[in-house]
Specification:
The protein is globular. The strands form 2 sheets. It has a 9-stranded mixed sheet, sandwiched between helices. It has a two-stranded antiparallel sheet with strand order 5-6. α6 packs across α10. It has 2 domains: about 140 residues, Thiolase/Chalcone synthase (Peroxisomal Thiolase, Chain A, domain 1), CATH 3.40.47.10; about 220 residues, Thiolase/Chalcone synthase (Peroxisomal Thiolase, Chain A, domain 1), CATH 3.40.47.10. With about 375 residues, it is of the alpha/beta class. InterPro entries: Thiolase, Thiolase-like, Thiolase_C_2, Thiolase_CS, Thiolase_N.
Length: about 375
């Protein structure tokens, strides 16, 4: 397993529905926690990668603004945008910067303040994440796209609305324990099944919520990590893939090829397989997204994902714990910050510092982060 690049610090703001400060202050909350975790100073940082979907923010080119506020001048800073997968794309960029020898320590800072615009405007911008000539004009929004995936999975494999509801029940049971989550209430199966429709078959509890938040991941070369960090967590494998933006160009509605291909690449680089993963964070923007992730990551054969949740195998005590921090369904989904939040959870798990959600003996963890409706797929495997 390659152990050339390590995570030496992680941080996250609370994810909230309406952050009262500026984007620079929001970014600082995650940065401060990560810097304290890494026990370094700004003089140790060689570069920063800021990750955000700028159409939600009033500030143009936020990387310069945030780097200045965080005291990271005159080091170079970059902006990375791959919608919902922005911060894991930023981690891939930082990995390359470190592996090339250009920098020893790189800060990856993801943020989004989605409350700066109205919910209607936010939905319109999400819709423009599809092809603005051939799809967006027809009113395709995120719930509608994922509802099509749900219908595709239902038709091909016999999956039911109750199977999806069980995923939300699990997420909520862990969201209660996550002090940084937006939604911290338990949800019963009955509540999930009886909730109002959003886009059939998806109901209110099948969907994550917009949020404001920031995450920070500090990465270093292996040599530097050993020098300055007591508990480095190494990147063992990275995989990334893209799919046609137009869903008419996809091979299936019952899964996301970009996730399957990214996972294959990450497993091969790490020299491990799905059976070796002790804990996973997957992109559950909708319950059907988590269901498809079970299968695209190889935790279950295609069509067998429902068996995992029915048998509670993706709970903390199961054979493959998934989203035991509540996932996006409980934490909320501040676009640019989401992937970094997932990484923070896995790093804490592999350090045995995850508290009430700790998976005993976790040594290898996986992050699966999707951008748009299966356009961009990132999978990263971490090890102690």
């Amino acid at each position: 397993m390659p152990k050339d690049v390590a995570v030496i610090g992680v941080g996250q703001s609370a994810f909230v529905r309406g952050y009262q400060g500026s984007i620079r202050e929001l970014a600082f909350e995650a940065f401060r926690e990560a810097m304290q975790d890494a026990a370094i100073t700004v003089k140790d940082v060689g570069a920063s990668v800021v990750c955000s979907a700028p159409e939600y923010d009033k500030q143009r080119t936020p990387s310069g603004l945030i780097a200045e506020y965080l005291g990271l001048n005159p080091q170079p800073t970059f902006i990375v945008e791959n919608v919902c997968s922005s911060s894991t794309s930023g981690i891939r960029v930082a990995y390359g910067l470190i592996k090339s020898g250009l920098h020893d320590v790189v800060v990856v800072l993801g943020f989004q303040k989605m409350s700066e615009i109205t919910s209607a405007d936010s939905q319109e911008r999400m819709g423009r994440g599809a092809d603005i000539m051939f799809e967006s004009p027809f009113g395709t929004l995120m719930p509608a796209y994922y509802a099509m995936h749900a219908r595709g999975h239902f038709a091909k494999y016999g999956t039911t609305e109750e199977d999806l509801a069980l995923i939300r029940v699990k997420a909520a049971s862990y969201g209660v324990l996550n002090e940084k989550a937006v939604y911290r209430k338990a949800v019963t199966l009955e509540q999930a099944m009886e909730a109002g429709p959003v886009c059939s078959p998806l109901k209110v509890f099948d969907c994550c919520a917009n949020a404001d938040g920031a995450s920070c991941v500090i990465m270093a070369s292996a040599d530097k990590a050993k020098e300055i960090c007591k508990e480095p967590v190494y990147i063992l494998g990275l995989g990334a893939a893209t799919a046609p933006m137009n869903v008419t160009g996809r091979t299936t509605f019952a899964g996301l090829d970009c996730a399957r291909l990214a996972a294959k690449e990450a497993y091969e680089m790490a020299g491990v397989g799905p059976q070796d993963i002790d804990v996973a964070e997957v992109h559950d923007c909708f319950t059907i997204a988590e269901m498809m992730a079970y299968e695209m990551l190889g935790f279950a054969e295609p069509g067998k994902g429902p068996e995992l949740i029915r048998n509670r195998e993706t709970y903390k005590e199961g054979k493959i714990p998934v989203n035991v921090d509540g996932g996006l369904l409980s934490k909320g989904h501040p676009i640019g910050a989401t992937g970094g939040s997932q990484v923070r959870t896995i790093v804490l798990q592999l350090r045995n510092k995850a508290g009430a959600i700790q998976v005993p003996g976790a040594e290898i963890g996986l992050v699966h982060n999707i951008g748009g409706v299966g356009i961009y797929g990132n999978v990263i495997i971490f090890g102690r």
